[in-house]
Design goal:
4 strands, binds flavin mononucleotide, alpha+beta, single chain
Length: 213
């Protein structure tokens, strides 16, 4: 299959329009099952080391579990507020949308006992593969005008207990998924003055022979 320049332009447009969405933007509109399936399909279409596909997606709509997770976040965020106490802004930031989002998805890494092709030297490649799945889901959701917010201010062990996962499972991402009233044009943390955007030239180094030695 050959794509056109127009397809590439659209893809970049979606990539640039993707935002992290928090509870201040989610609306209660339910997500159609076909759209949820497209997001999950995007997840399982990600590359994975040795084609290991070491992911598991737990789709959560149960209010009790969401409440447990929201409590978990509150406890961890109370500790984070202490860490950032010199930056007054932190305590006013909305950093999750667990209860507001109609669907939460826990994205898990389930390691296998067998040796994995490509993971014999660098041991974290399994986890990185699951991160690729998360990014695919985030972009597909954005293409469907659905927001996703990644919540990482959580006690991982307690999350895994809440979800009754099997031994050795790791939590890679806890995602809040839902329709939004609007998508911000740029990162909310940039707009609020938490961090500025790195320029392309700050992020890229061209290693040519003339720059060596
Ligand atoms: C690994 C990872 C963990 C993140 N954890 C959180 C989080 O716990 N809470 C939050 O509000 N945003 C979280 N984010 C979202 C980032 O803050 C966000 O991606 C960044 O500010 C850039 O904004 P944008 O995604 O809207 O462009 C996380 C993002 C990544 C990639």
């Amino acid at each position: 299959m050959n794509f056109t320049q127009d397809d590439a332009d659209k893809l970049l447009k979606i990539i640039k329009a993707r935002r992290d969405v928090r509870g201040n933007r989610f609306i209660p509109k339910p997500i159609e099952n076909e759209k949820l399936q497209m997001i999950l399909e995007a997840g399982i279409s990600a590359p994975s080391v040795g084609y290991s596909q070491p992911w598991k997606f737990v789709v959560i709509t149960d209010t009790n579990i969401k409440n447990e997770l929201a409590q978990n976040f509150e406890q961890e965020n109370a500790k984070a507020k202490e860490i950032f106490q010199t930056r007054e802004l932190y305590k006013n930031l909305k950093l999750e949308g667990i209860k507001e989002a109609p669907i939460n998805i826990a994205v898990l890494y389930e390691p296998t006992e067998q040796e994995v092709l490509g993971m014999t030297s660098m041991k974290k490649m399994g986890e990185y593969s699951v991160v690729c799945a998360v990014q695919n889901m985030w972009l597909m959701a954005r293409a469907l005008n659905i927001g996703i917010g990644w919540v990482s201010i959580l006690d991982e062990k307690k999350v895994l207990e809440s979800l009754q996962t099997k031994r050795d499972t790791q939590l890679i991402a806890y995602l809040c998924v839902g329709y939004v009233d609007k998508f911000y044009e740029e990162s909310e943390l940039k707009t609020l003055g938490w961090k500025s955007k790195k320029l392309l030239e700050e992020s890229v180094v061209y290693q040519t022979s003339s720059t060596l030695g």
